[in-house]
Specification:
The chain is mostly beta strands. It is 9% helix and 51% strand. It contains 4 helices and 19 strands.
Length: 347
């Protein structure tokens, strides 16, 4: 049975090798941290409001009040023979000029049969976000990527914008923003009506350099998001979100298009890579239930879509979040499994 699992894993890797769209070393950048984001099917670009902003839309950091500290961990098991551990820690603080954020994201891919570490990699990020008006926010992030277990490093950047409080009359319930919960705290991200978000992630002229003249492009991604605050009251809130995702890298033979050229040429091969949608139902600003759906248009990744769910408990300034999901990929009797847990403290 282990031979069958290993064969399937090698087959999957071979699929990537025949179409090396971007660096497999820093592929973990596509598996972005966060519990709410994963439970809502990955739909966060327009509504993100905490440490998940580092990997969805840096403009979302401007939605914190004073400070934020968050930690999450992803455990992803593949065919029962390999696992990827991805802890993330980050924080942000409000300054008069805007919000300054920092974070560290680590990935360790381990062979479960031999207990050996296959790949270790890490990224450090520094972000700045600002609320310009009642309707507009923007954010910037600079990342340094490093392969710990061998040669490979790069610099990359993110940029994001959010347009919000559009047609605020579309929100049912309390008409005024910032309803008070029984804990006496305001929810840090409380837009009304519609919100639109756009982010360009992992972009820049740098590639992953391995030494000896070899390099790969980074997984440059474009996200478009729509958020809708359907209900807003002091006892029940509901937020819906929709995202579209596209990987903007292109390789032709042994040559790569420049990062800015790939913004246009990558559309010639495929359209959008994935569709994400989800809903957050919050009771008394204390208990949140998340439901989501994700669909990958690429045939190879299609089985990684499907439904997802999770929950968060605690007031807005101290929350515990949990997410669990099973992916029936190739081997239904031994599917991939993923669980995430996270905590955050804010004020």
């Amino acid at each position: 049975m282990k031979f069958i699992k290993l064969f399937c894993l090698l087959a999957l890797i071979t699929q990537f090798e025949f179409k090396p769209v971007y660096s497999q070393v820093f592929e973990y950048l596509v598996l972005r941290p966060g519990i709410e984001s994963a439970a809502m099917g990955g739909a966060q670009t327009a509504i993100v409001n905490d440490y998940q902003s580092f990997y969805y839309n840096p403009a979302g950091l401007s939605r914190i009040n004073l400070f934020l500290i968050g930690y999450s961990k992803i455990h992803y098991e593949v065919f029962g023979i390999a696992e990827n551990e991805l802890p993330f820690g980050g924080g942000a603080i409000y300054l008069r000029i805007g919000v300054l954020g920092f974070g560290i994201y680590h990935s360790t891919i381990k062979n479960l049969i031999t207990s050996d570490d296959l790949i270790k990699q890490r990224s450090y990020q520094l972000s700045f976000a600002r609320r310009v008006s009642d309707h507009f926010r923007f954010g910037l992030t600079l990342k340094y990527l490093k392969k710990v277990s061998g040669p490979g490093s790069a610099y990359t950047g993110d940029i994001g914008m959010i347009f919000e409080n559009i047609l605020s009359q579309l929100t049912f319930g309390m008409a005024n923003p910032k309803p008070i919960s029984f804990t006496g705290k305001f929810k840090k991200s409380d837009f009304r009506g519609l919100a639109f978000g756009v982010s360009l992630l992992n972009t820049g002229p740098d590639k992953v350099e391995y030494g000896g003249g070899s390099s790969d492009p980074l997984p440059q991604m474009l996200n478009l998001g729509l958020g809708y605050k359907a209900l807003a009251s002091d006892f029940l809130n509901a937020t819906l979100a929709i995202d579209l995702n596209k990987v903007l890298t292109r390789r032709r033979g042994d040559k790569d298009d420049n990062f800015f050229k790939a913004w246009f040429t990558s559309w010639g091969e495929d359209g959008w890579d994935s569709f994400h949608t989800g809903i957050d139902v919050n009771f008394y600003y204390f208990l949140s239930l998340y439901f989501g759906y994700e669909y990958h248009f690429n045939v190879l990744n299609e089985t990684k879509g499907g439904t997802s769910t999770g929950f968060a408990i605690g007031p807005d300034y101290a929350r515990l979040e949990v997410y669990y999901r099973v992916y029936p990929i190739l081997l239904p009797d031994n599917p991939d499994r993923e669980w995430r847990v996270g905590v955050s403290v804010s004020y």
